[in-house]
């Protein structure tokens, strides 16, 4: 198919010209936040394994034991034969952690959002989405067929104005946001969003992919706002929990509806038992070691203080450099000094805000955090 290859080739050339082409780089991950690329060992500040639990001996043993006992895969949709009992154990634990009646586990966080949102809203409804919300929230919104209304990032007044204008014309309204923003590390004003949602009979969905396990003693960003009512608490098992999979915590009625209607649950293979077992082992560690869960944020604050940046709110700190090639050059310079800090470019982040996204882990030594901060200070001075 000449036209097909010509199409792909032209797309790639155009991306190359803008420094926006991406390439896979085979990477081995070791414990201690060490990664290996091209035979070179680097200290990674780009993994979302905030507690190092993907390599924790108890978590690995739980995954290995489940794989040996129950097999490597789930073999079918959860509604057929793929609903291993470990999945309901995990759902009970997640619901307890989040203080909800029930929970539903999905194959990934991406599958959770793209399954949950279209189950709850559709044509004739509206979904209000924070401008910087994660790509899978936008994908879920598009799949739903509901009217999509974008509100300015963390801007409660903008959302209030849009709800006043749009809410009366639709049947149901959903407000969707990241709890911790994946590329900026800031936190949604969930208390104010919750109050607005109550006033307008809108349903609040918070995506806590980067909060669970590392904020509020591991309970996540929602727990930072005791008065917030968040009926839809989504998250992932793939980051601080060191495993794979996604979840939604909510009321029994909502969870029952998802389990019969969410297309990414009905028509996709269930989560492998080993992933559930690993997540359960991680939850044991998180819930019995609240001080350990505060480590990533403490390292992030050490970094922001050294650089004179505003205090970090989460383990994610953006160092915005502007153009894509500037971010790539900075990343390459840091790699030369033994650090892996991957450059993040559009369309993952808005045009003109390419950046280093620095993610901190309990496994980082303070001395390495300070060394990285000093290396970045030198790069920023050179760029200014
Ligand atoms: C990573 C991420 C997801 C997707 O979760 P996966 O389990 O990796 O599919 C969803 N939302 C946010 C905010 C994320 O950062």
From TrEMBL:
Similarity-based family: Belongs to the class-II pyridoxal-phosphate-dependent aminotransferase family. BioF subfamily.
E.C. no: 2.3.1.47
Species: Caulobacter segnis
Keywords: Acyltransferase, Biotin biosynthesis, Pyridoxal phosphate, Transferase
Keyword Acyltransferase: yes
Pfam families in the record: Aminotran_1_2
Pathway this chain belongs to: Cofactor biosynthesis; biotin biosynthesis
Top-rank EC class of the record's enzyme: transferase
Function: Catalyzes the decarboxylative condensation of pimeloyl-[acyl-carrier protein] and L-alanine to produce 8-amino-7-oxononanoate (AON), [acyl-carrier protein], and carbon dioxide.
This protein's name: 8-amino-7-ketopelargonate synthase
Molecular function GO labels: 8-amino-7-oxononanoate synthase activity
Names of required cofactors: pyridoxal 5'-phosphate
Stored SUPFAM superfamilies: PLP-dependent transferases (SSF53383)
Gene3D superfamilies assigned to the protein according to its UniProt record, in alphabetical order: Aspartate Aminotransferase, domain 1 (3.90.1150.10), Type I PLP-dependent aspartate aminotransferase-like (Major domain) (3.40.640.10)
Quaternary assembly: Homodimer.
InterPro entries: Aminotrans_II_pyridoxalP_BS (IPR001917), Aminotransferase_I/II_large (IPR004839), AON_synthase_class-II (IPR050087), AONS_Archaea/Proteobacteria (IPR004723), PyrdxlP-dep_Trfase (IPR015424), PyrdxlP-dep_Trfase_major (IPR015421), PyrdxlP-dep_Trfase_small (IPR015422)
Keyword Transferase attached: yes
Catalytic reaction equation(s): 6-carboxyhexanoyl-[ACP] + L-alanine + H(+) = (8S)-8-amino-7-oxononanoate + holo-[ACP] + CO2
Sequence intervals crossing the membrane: none
Residue ranges constituting the Aminotransferase class I/classII large domain according to the UniProt record: 42-376
NCBIfam families in the cross-refs: bioF (TIGR00858)
């Amino acid at each position: 198919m000449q036209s097909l290859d010509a199409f792909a080739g032209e797309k790639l050339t155009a991306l190359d010209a803008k420094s926006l082409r991406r390439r896979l780089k085979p990477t081995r991950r070791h414990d201690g936040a060490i990664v290996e690329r091209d035979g070179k060992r680097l200290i990674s500040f780009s993994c979302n394994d905030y507690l190092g639990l993907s390599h924790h001996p108890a978590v690995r043993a739980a995954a290995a034991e489940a794989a040996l006992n129950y097999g490597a895969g789930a073999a079918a949709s959860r509604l057929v034969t793929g609903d291993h009992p470990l999945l309901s154990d995990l759902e009970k634990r997640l619901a307890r952690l989040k203080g909800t009646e029930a929970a539903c586990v999905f194959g990934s966080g991406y599958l959770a959002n793209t399954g949950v949102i279209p189950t709850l809203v559709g044509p004739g409804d509206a979904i209000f989405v924070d401008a910087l919300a994660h790509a899978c929230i936008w994908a879920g919104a598009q799949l739903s067929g509901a009217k999509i209304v974008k509100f300015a990032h963390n801007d409660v007044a903008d959302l209030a104005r849009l709800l006043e204008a749009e809410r009366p014309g639709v049947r149901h309204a959903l407000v969707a946001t990241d709890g911790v923003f994946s590329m900026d590390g800031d936190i949604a004003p969930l208390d104010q969003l919750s109050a607005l949602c109550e006033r307008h009979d809108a349903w609040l969905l918070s995506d806590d992919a980067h909060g669970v396990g590392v904020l509020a003693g591991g309970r996540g960003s929602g727990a930072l706002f005791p008065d917030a009512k968040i009926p839809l608490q989504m998250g992932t098992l793939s980051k601080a929990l060191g495993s794979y999979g996604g979840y939604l915590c909510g009321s029994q009625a909502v969870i029952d509806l998802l389990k019969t209607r969410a297309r990414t649950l009905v028509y996709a293979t269930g989560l492998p038992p080993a992933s559930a077992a690993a997540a359960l082992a991680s939850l044991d560690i998180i819930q019995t070691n609240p001080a350990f869960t505060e480590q990533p944020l403490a390292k992030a604050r050490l970094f922001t203080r050294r650089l004179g940046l505003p205090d970090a709110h989460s383990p994610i700190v953006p160092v915005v450099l502007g153009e894509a090639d500037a971010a790539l050059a900075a990343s390459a310079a840091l790699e030369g000094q033994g650090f892996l800090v991957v450059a993040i470019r559009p369309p993952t982040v808005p045009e003109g805000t390419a950046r280093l996204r620095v993610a901190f882990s309990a496994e980082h030594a303070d001395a390495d955090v300070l060394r990285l901060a000093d290396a970045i200070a030198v790069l920023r001075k050179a760029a200014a």
